[in-house]
Amino acid sequence: MNQPTSLLDGWIQENNKLVNRSKGREDHVPTRDQHTGPCSADFHKLLLKIQGIPPLADHMQLELTVTYNTCVCFTAQSHFSEAELLLKQATERVLHMTVDDHDASNPLVLWRKVLESAGSVPLKEYVLFLLCLQWAIWLATCQLKTIQEFKDELFSLVETFSSAIGGDRRSEAGSSDSPLLLLDPRWLSEHLRICTAIAQGAERLSEGWSSEALSDLQTASSLSAPRTLLAYTHLLSGSCLAQMSRPQMALQCYRKALETDSQCVSALYQSTLIYRQMGNTQAEIQALRLLHSTLMFPHTTEPTLPGTHLLSPAFLLCSQSLSSLLSVPSALSVLHSLALKCVLHGRLSEGVEYYLDLLAALHSENQHAVHVEVPPLPRLPKLYLEAGAALLMARLPADCMALCDEVSSSTVELLPEMVVLEEQEDRCEAETGACAEDEDRVQILLWATAAYLLQGHCYTHMRDWKQAITHYTRCINLLVMVRFKKTGFPPQIPNADMVTKKGTHLCTLQRLKGLSLAGRGISFTQTSQLREALRDLQLSLQALPECVGAGLWCGEVLWRLGRRLEAAACWEKTWSRTTQSSEESLSIYLHEPQTGPLLDSSELRRRIQELGHPSPAQE
Amino acid sequence: MEGRCAVETWAEFRSSGSTCPQRLVYTHGTDVFLCTGDDEVYVFCSERRKVTTVLKFPGPLNDLYGTNEKTPLYAACSNGVYCVCLQSLLSRPQNLSADASTSPAELQISSESLVVPVEGVLSLLPIGSLLVTLSLRDTFWTLTLYSSSKQSEPFQVLGSFSLPVVSGVSHHETEGKTRMKRRPMLIYVCSGDSTPLSSSPTSLDANGHISHFSLEPVLFKLLFGVDAALAKSPVILCGLPDGRLCFLPLRPLGSGLRVLHSLEQSVIFIGASSFLETSGHAQCLVALGEQGRVVQIKVNKAGPEGGRNTAGFTEGCVPGPVMCSCIDKNYLYYSTGSDLLVLDLSEGSNGRKKDEETCNKMVAALQNPSSLNVCRVNTLVELKNTTAGEVQLLSLSVGGQLQRITVPVRKDDGTLSNVPSTQVGKGIRDLLSAIGDVCERASDLKSAIKSKNQILMHLNQVLNISFLLTANSDKHLLVQEKLFRCHAMTSWSRLLQKDFLNLTCVLDNSSPYVLEQGWTLSITVSPLAHSPSAGRERSSTNFSFPFQNLLPGETLEVSLPLTAAADTSFPITVSCSIIFSLSSLLEEEAAKLHGLQSRCISLPLNTLTVDWLQALQVDCSKPTSQFDNTNNAIQAFIDSRRIRCSRRGEVGGESTPKSEPEKYSATVRVSSELLKETLLLKNCDSDPHPNVCLSLLDWLLSEQHEGVKRGQQGDKTAVSNSVIYARGPNGHTIKLTATEGNLKVENTGKEESLTTVEVQIESSSLAAVCGLHHAVLHRVQTLLLTAPDRAASTKSVQSLALRRTLQQAEHLLQQIQQHRISEGFSVGVSRGQMTGPLLRVYRELRENPLLIV
């Protein structure tokens, strides 16, 4: 161009060129950093040039536009302090132009002053753009308190933008003589409004102010916003209601969230938690199944509007309390709980299917990495054992044995010769090297024993008593290698008197011992080795007094040995215990087998009654 | 002496000096893939012993991976990972290489084979349908898994794992600069009882050995856990340049990248060896560090009396530095650059017992490699194990030679086998050639040392001189006291009907050092201020004069054209500096020094200013005619017409056209007392009754000022008239008048009179008047500096006048600023309208000349 252009025009053109370039590039470049990196530097350079001259009204619009664009880039790159500095400088320059003296160091005071002084100036609109960005920075850095303090101004900002007839500025923005904006501030302000409502709701919810949060969230849910964000408002309302112990209403809200956005998996997950709380197992299983299929379904990403990818809602909503509310376990975790639920609640064939699906998924090449998962998926051997137990319950002992074989063969070479189990309370929870290794050693031993136990159960089920006895014996031999150590005392063989807490290794150990001894005792009974049977069953009762099978069979052996009164007492004692409920929290492979030879309780009672009539004098 | 290695050179490749590592990949078929460190991959056919194809990638390659002709070749380029299917590429464009039999086909790899568009991938490893890449992001090693459903389709990210970089790993000091070139090493291992993932039973890694090992199941479980073993998962092993060995089981994902061991030096190589012939699995993992640290990881078997299996780490140290390595069953081959060595891993390992003795034996074995006497090996690949027991290795030498190294059969006792007598002759020949090699290498090294010494001496001298100069500049020495300085003289010459102003510049070496070869005198000529019409950029011209030896006390005289007549951009700044070019001295060393920002040392000497006075052509008397030649007359005529026309257009024809162009003038008043004290004191002996006016003019025109002197040509007679006519560089006549007179000065109420000399400058050219005014003022300023201190009694400060003048000046400054800003924003306003006010401001500025006392 030969025509010498004025600086103002030149700067406008440079700005527009940068905006168009960044908009043109947004489709190709995958990551955000690479995208805005050079752009922000370019914008900043341009801004420095413009700020080289004193603030005057005729070029202030351009300057504020470039400040806005630069700050959008900086914010999108999470360079918040740089962006805030620029905003501060810009407001100060505006103040310089309108009022002469100002001495505000507090950003809020500064903003109020600028809004006040720019009220009459045509720059007002541009100052509001910058305020919009400041809002975004506050939100992205979780300064919800500041936003709350500045609520009125921000609200009037949204009002101003929405009352302005849409498209008046934007339509003429295509021409080259007005500076272009990198991101539509109206779009941004609307997003900020709902995102603020969501973030505040989550914050209040985590602080326990459910009812206050609820009202805000419900007003937010009537705003016009993308489906994803609206679904979040419903979801959070549901969580508020759940906290206020109104599960049915909470479920309603979750349903609304799902209707709004079918990809809102957190709503599904939260519903399963509510169902679990309410004890509605069938519904819980149903919801888990739905959740799993949704998670497996390929994620369809919503097409983003052009120019809006820079400050996405995900970028603005980063508070800890919200992300913990939105977190959903991985598909594999969901599948595991689904399988476990099915097995525990009698839907055996389904449960087995799910377990097999889970194992297949774990063996497939294309599994997605999940970084932090709470609660984590159980270790692989444990999953194998659970699946094996499910298969056995479904009366598929051959498959169960195959799984157990894998576990035992993979652990057999690593078995320690002796393990000392320290008292749980004193165990350091930190994952130090030695501790983790010790822990691993104990777990390997417990997995191997459980595998033998299940194999024993399988043989019992197939009435191969000899094999069953072999496997139970292997199991018992491993178990006796464990010594229990209380701090200050020498290691000793654990017994049932020790206080056993649920979920500890000691508890597992005692259960394994009781079950394996009971199993061997029952097998001995079947091969008519009554003496051995009685010894094992009594030892079993010692280790695990609540073992029903051991109690009943112990009575039976006593009866066969002619010790009828002792037998009757034994039976009575067993019946008097109500223990079934405690099994719920244990791994399913530690449950008492329901597949072995059974004794008919009514038959036993009849025997006791017969015993009672002819010989009351004997007692 | 045992049998020796036979080295056979297959081909020679250009070895680029770039920083990218050389890569060599041997595939199971006949092809060898080679990358010598740039963006090209050569496909070398080992059967035909020639390069068949050249693949050209869009950028330098970091890593290369291929298994055989059927599977695709993966290449980590600077802008992403490319996946190239050679067969389909070669079959498609048959027309491309018509004479395929003679010259290699050249294939340009386009972006359509870009499968992972992520920058900065350092290493890659395909496992089945997965692709593993390792890159360095900020301070994190990032391992990323990709999967693809179909080939040549963009891969999708499955997950990524990162590990913070550990700093502070000791590096060999000479190796420091090559550190960044080290590429992380990636391999994967499977448990021996699980089925391998890839289609081929073994595949070869870029560094030349089987990249997929099947490890003894016990060792696998001990190292990588029960979960990985149960899931039959392959485990990715990576050796990082910060010395750590990390692993990641592929299934179940999510356990994260964990550290297995740390060598505390850059990991060069990871491999597995199987010294027991009975089982098909490898019994131990070996890792080799840059400085020769070896770690061997094996199972410590449970004894018969009890105990359990544990993983045993045995560390040793071999003489380094290690350039590359490869493994063959139980022998680890590695190159230090000056020798190829072999390490027997089986020694001491066969003992089943876990006692002190075997342990010591193992450590000892790890420390005693035996030499194979092959030097300059850069990259190593195992080629094959012949039936006779010979091992063939493929290597790429430092000089870019592709060589096949045949290692003779080893006997069980670990010594090399005796060669049959028929081969003794051949052995001696080999030996002699090896001696020749070593001799050549030694003489190479000797000459290298010599030249380095010379360079060091040279550098020392340069350092001395730079120190001298920088120390000078610190102390603000006067120009006269500088050890290196420049002074200059102007002179007019006439060439091709045009007048040229020449500058003769003299570099004076009064230091005790010799300016040796490699120094260059650089003179930059640039106008101090530039006129806006001349162009936006500041036009400066650079002259450099390389010289041989400038001994102490010698001078170097160079002459350069300063400007042609009619170029009015005075005053001109002449910056002198001496430059030493390091690149000419260091040559290839400089190329290696990445930290060196510029290859030159530039030392500024002093800056000279050529002003209007020095550019004057003086005619002592009144000019005979206004314009002394026709050429100029026409020029002046055109100029005057133009001025008139423009003036008419500007003022709107209001004023009558003048016959003569407007005269501009400026005056400088200096008190004669000052002049007498300074100027006349110097040469009072020559003239008892000096004329102040004449001596002032004489001084102005002929005295050296700031190192520049006006050359006298023809007019060297002393100034005899107080009116001087001269021609400026733009051809305009200039009249310089010096008159002595009395000036009444109003000083705090009462009037005083003061004798002053008034220098008046008159010309029709505004530029000339301004320039000369500036020059004269500048001279007088320096005069004031040299003036002896006078008592404050002479004159009190003209405070009132001064204040008024200051106010005026401030006002004018404001006006100028306003004009400048409005100029920036206005397009419509014409330049004429702009300059009008500025000119007015300027005149106002000069209206009331200050009296210099």
Name the quaternary structure: heterodimer
Tally of DSSP β-strands of chain A: 2
Kindly report how far apart the N and C termini of chain A lie.
122 Å
Low-confidence stretches of chain B: 94-99, 170-180, 196-210, 412-417, 531-536, 620-628, 645-659, 791-799
Through-space gap between termini of chain B? 100 Å
Sequence of secondary-structure elements of chain A: HHHHHHHHHHHHHHHHHHHHHEHHEHHHHH
Q: What's the name of the CATH homologous superfamily of the domain at 378-610 in chain A?
A: Tetratricopeptide repeat domain
Most strands sheet of chain B = 6 strands, mixed
Largest inter-chain contact set = A-B, 43 and 39 residues
Strand runs of chain B, count: 44
How many separate helices of chain A? Answer: 28
Keywords:
heterodimer, A: 619 residues, mainly alpha, Serine Threonine Protein Phosphatase 5, Tetratricopeptide repeat, two-stranded parallel ribbon, 1% strand, elongated, disordered C terminus, B: 853 residues, alpha+beta, 6-stranded mixed β-sheet, 5-stranded mixed β-sheet, 13 helices, 44 strands
